[in-house]
Design a protein that fits this description.
single chain, 336 residues, Beta-lactamase Inhibitory Protein, Chain:B, domain 1, 5-stranded mixed sheet, 3-stranded antiparallel sheet
């Protein structure tokens, strides 16, 4: 649960960080993105502490199949905003696809990328992989953070990685490197079997209570992931469909869609306010844009209608909810 949800929470923090530094984002939305990034980092820390308390001595750390290669993992992190690059040495790695060695390497890289995102935000990260001595070696190196990181208490992430690698007969090192941090792991092609652990009996009530807490914690963390992702997408779509009033006022009737395309946003409104708009001119195709980047409130919209030849034949101001009559006329006059 910690590996999967913790990584996804860190990716949400990355997406929020990318939104936070967007050049066209209003100050109040930039602050909201910063709050979202901090909340995701805090949720990751709380999840880490919960797992540390609930882990039972007789339960080995699971190595659940990742369902993706290390290269795909790095690509997914890069798409989420982490400045990471993949540098393989040679044509491939000496591990069996879907085997224990591959899952261990996947876990090492995933945990290292998560740590880089949390503790060194903005720092460039390099992931290298090479065939060495009958196995595969991965090295994850990050530079100095370029953004302020959230404070975090020490955890057992690196200790867990060290245990997983060494129990498979590999080598693991981690520590400062230059201005940043480096994680180095070598896993043999055929990992040695781990010795079975002797189960330590525990009270049934204690186990049941722990299971209930784990279930609740998983549901809460999943909720944070969903809400955070939804907010990030909502903020992105809403702020990238804003047509500035000054630009709207300069749009001349008769202009073609190609002529005015440079001043139009890259997205149109998803939920069009057709119930507040005047009747659409016959035979036209209309596009709707927001007049403001404010979130969670009703805002004015602009409607641009084009004829079958792609020429602008009508432009209308659609008032926000509750604005009508004299107020609407004043806003339309201002927009002109």
């Amino acid at each position: 649960m910690h590996d999967s949800l913790g990584h996804e929470l860190s990716l949400i923090a990355l997406r929020a960080g990318a939104l936070q530094v967007a050049a066209d984002l209003p100050d109040q939305h930039r602050a909201a993105a910063a709050d979202l990034r901090a909340a995701a980092a805090d949720a990751t820390d709380r999840l880490h502490r919960i797992i540390g308390v609930l882990r039972e001595d007789d339960e080995p750390v699971p190595l659940t199949p990742a369902g993706e290669s290390v290269e795909q993992l790095v690509a997914r992190a890069a798409e989420s905003g982490l400045p990471v690059r993949w540098e393989p040495a040679g044509s491939g790695t000496a591990v069996q696809a879907g085997g224990v060695a591959e899952r261990i390497l996947h876990r090492v890289v995933r945990e290292s990328l998560t740590n880089a995102a949390r503790h060194a935000p903005g720092a460039p990260v390099t992931v290298t992989a090479a065939e060495e001595a009958g196995g595969t070696t991965v090295t994850i190196t990050n530079g100095r953070a370029t953004q302020k990181s959230s404070p975090s208490a020490g955890g057992s992430g690196l200790l867990g990685l060290r245990a997983a690698v060494t129990e498979a007969g590999g080598d693991f090192t981690a520590g400062p490197h230059g201005d940043g941090f480096r994680v180095h792991a070598h896993v043999p092609e055929q990992p040695t079997p781990r010795s079975p652990r002797t189960a330590v009996p525990s009270a049934p009530f204690t186990r049941a209570r722990r299971r209930v807490v784990v279930t609740i914690a998983a549901a809460a963390c999943a909720g944070v992931v969903l809400v955070g992702g939804a907010f990030g997408w909502y903020a992105y779509t809403e702020t990238h469909s804003v047509l500035q009033p000054a630009a709207y006022a300069k749009l001349p009737l008769g202009a073609t869609a190609d002529e005015i395309a440079p001043v139009l946003p890259d997205r149109t409104v998803r939920d069009t306010p057709v119930e507040r708009a005047p009747a659409q001119p016959s035979g036209t195709d209309c596009r709707y844009y927001r007049a403001s980047g404010e979130l969670f409130v009703s805002v004015e919209h602009f409607r641009l209608c084009f004829d079958t030849e792609g020429r602008l034949v009508a432009k209308d101001v659609i008032p926000r909810v509750g604005l009508s009559g004299e107020g609407r006329e004043e806003y339309e006059e201002f927009a002109r």
